[in-house]
Each structure stands twice: as C-alpha cells, then as structure tokens.
C-alpha cells in the first residue's frame, strides 16, 4: 500500500453523497487492503452488541448484521484499543463463531471516538489469509478515522435536528418565531390550528394580529420591557382567533440570538378548558349546592377583602357589619315535616332575600344559618336591613299545600376600624371574630325574644355559661347524676293511685336546674337521647322496686321528646329492649308524647307508635290542646290517654269557656275510647268541675308534688290510709 492506494481511496469518496459515504469507504478499503470483509459498526455498551452500518464482503455491500462482541477481538476495540492479529485469530478467540463461519485468519480493528471521547463506533478489516504488516494497516485506517467520525457526528446532528424539527412541528404547543423587527418568520402546525391563521397569512406579520384588545397599552409595554431586560416573559393572556373567538393561553416568550441578531421564540399553550374547569371548581367550592347562594368559604374570602379595603382607605365614616341570622325553630320544621320540606323552605328563603341583597355577599353559612355583609355609615342603616329581611318573610312559605310561617332572628357585629392597616393574618382573625360575634348576637336574640341584637361583650360570658351548662349536663347524664321523681296520677272513679309520671330532675353542683332550662339544652345538644334512655331505665328500676314491696300494676308515664323520634331506629327498638332487659311488662309503661307528633307528615312516627302499641305499651298524648289540636288526627294514631294541658285547668272552675272546652274534649275522647288526665290540678274546685265532667285521672299538687324514689312507698301507704 502506498501513495497511489491512498489517492485512489480519497478520489473514490470525494464526490460521494452522504448516504453512500459509509458503503463507499468500506468497499474502497476492502479493495486496497485485499480484505475479505471491511465494516463500520456502532457498539451498544449496554447490550454489548455491535451493529454494522456498512458491511463490504468480497467487494460487495451486503446486508448489515448485529452480533455479540463478548469473546471477540471487537470487544478490545470497543474499549478504545487498536487491535490487530496477523494470523491465528480463530485460535485466539475460539468462541467467536463469526470468525469461523467467515474463515478469517487475520484481524485489524480501530476505535472511532466521539466528541465526548467515548468509543461508540469501530472500523474492522477481516482477512482470510495472513497479513505481512498489520501495523501499516493500522496506520492506514487511522488516516480515515477522523473523516469517518466527522461524517458520523454530522449524521447524528442532522438526525437530532430532524427530530427537533419534528418535535416543533408536531408539538401540541403552538410555537412561532419573530425576527428582530418582531415580525413572524415561522409558525408550526399547532399554531395554525390554534389561531385559525395559515402560515402564509402570518409570515411577516406582527403578533398583534392575535390581540383580543382586552389589555391596555401599559400591559404590553411592561411585557416587552421585561422581555428586553430579562430575556423572557411568561403568563396567562387572552387572545383572539382569526374567527374572533376568545381563548385563554399560557404564553412564554424568550429572547434569543440568531446569526448575531435578536429573535423571539414564543410558546403558546391553550388553557381555555383548564381555566373553564378551574372556574367551575371555584364556583362549586364557593357556592351552596342547595340554594345556589355563595357559601361560607366565599363569605370569609370576601369579608377579608372588605376588611383589607376598609383598613387602607381614608374614609373613616364607612364601616362594615356582618348580619347573621338563622331560621327560628328550623329543627322543629325538619322534625315535623321532614328534611326535604326543610330544604325547600331554605331555598324559598334564599330566593326571597337574594334579589334584595345580591350585592351584599348574601351567603348560606351552614344548615339554616345565613349571613350578609353590609357597609354602612350610620347604625340606622343596619336596623333598616334587619327590618327589610323580616318584612320579606312576612308571607308564609307554601310548599306542597302546606303553609308554613318562617321567621328569622338576627345578630349584628360591627367593624369600625377604617384607616387602620393590618396584616393578612390579623385580617383573617378579625373576619373570624366578626362572624362569631354576629352568631353570638343571634343566639342572645333568640334567648331574649328580640328580633335582632347588636353584639356586645356581655354576650361572650352568657354564651360561655350556656356552653358550660351543656357540658355539665352531658357529663351528668354520662355519670348517672340525673334523678327521676315520680308524680302520682289518681283514678277519680276508684279514688286510687293508678299511675305515676316520671319527671327528670338535675341537681348541678348543689343547685337545682329547672327542667324548663335544661330540657331545651338537652334537645339542642342531642343529649336528650341518652337522657331519655336513663329516665326509662330508672323508671323500670322503680317499678321493680315497688313490686318487691308488694305494689303491682302501676303504670308509669315516661316522656319522649319529639327529637328522640328523629334518632329512633325501628329495626332495633332500644326502648323495648330496655323494658325487656329490666323484666318489666310493656303494659306498665306509657310513653308520653307532645302533640307535634300528630303532624300529618310524620307517618314514620306512626310506625314507631304502632310498634310500641303492638308490644303492649300505652301511648299518652301530653299538653293536649296547645299544638295541632285536631281530634281527627287521633283516629290515625294509637293513643290511649289524653293529658289536658295545665293552661286549660288553671281557670276551669272560674271560666265558663274553659269549662265548656274541657267538657267537650272529655266527651269526644270518650267517644274515641281515649282516657283523659287533667294536669296541674291544685284546687278542690278544679277537682269538682273535672269530676263532674267525667275526667278519668287527676294529676297535680292537689294530691302530690313529684316525689323522689324513696318517698313513693310512704306516699302510697299514707294515701291508702286516708282513703
């Protein structure tokens, strides 16, 4: 091999196109060297396999192959070493089956190193005969490795460029490029799809053609100032398509250099659907699904904004108030008519008020609680708003043929610190305090019977006392610190004690608390459930104690709150389970209920009463005449006894109207087969009128006040002796 051979190879590849370069150089080297095979192969370091990119065999280009380089001389070459064997290469590498199959005797291989210095391509010549000067072949190969490697790097660069171009063209992100004059020089397919403009329509145009005209010049001036000073800008922006449709996009613009001139590359991501989804999520997160009003999260956010705004403004005369209110006796409405009816009441209330207070952040806070944010200058404005709310609810709510009067009680808290700047943390504390104070004012207004009240500091102490009493009552029930007294009920005809009413009593740390005070607390806090169970249990224990002393066949009336029915599980009748577990006959227990259970909608209560009646229990209707007062309802309920309310008895002996009413109730009850008990009898004259009217039973201080358990037997003994 000499200068002529080198010149011949150079001439053979000088005019080649890139796609023929590797094949041509392998053929030329094969011819000049007299090699049976010459190939270029790329090595995969991970799999230890070499794959030829050009393979000349016996002066022909053949199909490329892939082979395992382990246990072959190519392994040394792939590690960056020049490897040559003048003869006997098969014996040196007995596991290389290719050498055997090709009949190879001699081998020369040189590595080609990439820019990073890593060997990823090898150039190999295989000979079927011995070679005289392997070193000369190595040197000859080395003359071409640089040329081959440059061609490989060029191909890789072009491949990467093609891939990048494909990525840009096929990207879901819209991409466009502007020159230093901010004129569009390139836009990809995604851009044309997003904007509706073809490439021809935007080339040479300023991106202003996309403007939605929703931003003033200052916005764009600030944008370009940031691009030119910091080299980039990104943010959300609304633009317009060729068809005039607005869309929200995330736009990123980067300033770059191209051939010494500035250019601008912009990436656009259409986030319209994302923004619409965010808006929907925000709406649902900040609106009440039942009424459609804003909810407590929005109310708090808006309240904080107003507090912040007022804190920084100069007008010290503008103040802020939270007007909080809830529906009076809404729990009763739910209990009597059902939850669905209650929901419709809330929707009707929201609809009536929303029109008048749409601009005042009228929100549903929770359950039947609502709040309004109101700015004002004079307190009289707040009083006017409260009266306006009340006036809008004067007309009864009519739902499904049922007319229900709805009223609300309002509480107002005031923020009068305009001009006082404060931190965000303090703003949130003020917001929470204002809502809490307005709520406390509402609670106090309910207790005092006022239509509305402004918050004052004394209310805090009152509420704390209220909460403490609830906590103490809860603990008293848990610790069995509740007493049950028993008031005798006299059979007039036989002049005997026939029944007792079980009455709960609570001595709280040495002070007796009136049932009129703690029973509503128990109902409000749901302590009424365990309290009722405790009273029933102690009543059963009293029955067994009397039986042990020879007193049998007494009926004991046990009161049941309407709220206990809402928690009642007919599949597991806890009341009957208690009676059975104590060994008491169901006929000895009469469940005493108020008239509210007679509402026509309470068919579920009828099921409970029927279940109790079928088990043998009696049903007494307490305070008759103060509630729904319709004897026709009694035909639908298994009532055994009516108890005339004390308000009818107080003047029955002096008021002819009361006397006539009582007599008519007794007569009608007799027709229905229902016994009558007169409550609150204290005078002999009352007893005389009731006896003449045919009343069955008498209960009241005339015979006995409620007795502690230990006094029941002495009373029975004394009563029997007197008779």
From TrEMBL:
Domain GGDEF: residue ranges: 318-458
**PAS domain boundaries:** 166-206
Superkingdom field = Bacteria
Its recorded name reads Phosphodiesterase
CDD domains tied to this protein: EAL (cd01948), GGDEF (cd01949), PAS (cd00130)
Q: Which Pfam families match?
A: EAL (PF00563), GGDEF (PF00990), PAS_9 (PF13426)
Q: What residues does the EAL domain cover?
A: 466-720
Q: SUPFAM superfamilies, per this entry?
A: EAL domain-like (SSF141868), GAF domain-like (SSF55781), Nucleotide cyclase (SSF55073), PYP-like sensor domain (PAS domain) (SSF55785)
SMART domains to which the protein is assigned, alphabetical: EAL (SM00052), GGDEF (SM00267), PAS (SM00091)
Task: Show the stretches that span the lipid bilayer.
Answer: none
